[in-house]
Amino acid sequence: xxxxxxxxxxxxxxxxxxxxxxxxxxxxxxxxxxxxxxxxxxxxxxxxxxxxxxxxxxxxxxxxxxxxxxxxxxxxxxxxxxxxxxxxxxxxxxxxxxxxxxxxxxxxxxxxxxxxxxxxxxxxxxxxxxxxxxxxxxxxxxxxxxxxxx
Length: 150
Description:
With about 150 residues, this protein is α+β, with helices and mostly antiparallel strands. It contains 3 helices and 4 strands; from the N terminus they run αααββββ. The longest helix is centred in the first third of the chain and has 52 residues, at about 15-65. Strand 3 and strand 4 form a beta hairpin. About 40% of the residues lie in helices and about 15% in strands.
């Protein structure tokens, strides 16, 4: 009778290690995708909040003056400080944008402000005829958020 010596198995097999690595990879992917979606939703919510804040200040300005400011005035920090007290300049900056200014037509990473007269023509030459405006935020994942004058 021969005696066989059995080694005690210590550690993990390569198959067990691969299974653990695959499971960790799947979990990491789920966390990253979920986190990215949550961040995108938070930025879109901030866009909506910013547009609503600007809208409120524009309507208050209109109630006092009978017209809406031009794009040039909205982008002039000194003018804004004097005429739109309480409007946080950060509200003019898209969460992924780089400047606290509005642009003339909708674009990614910035807010658009278009102001016209009753005939939907430019009122830049005579601000007192500015009677309509449209504020637009381009949302991540597609779509826009739009606020118009009352």
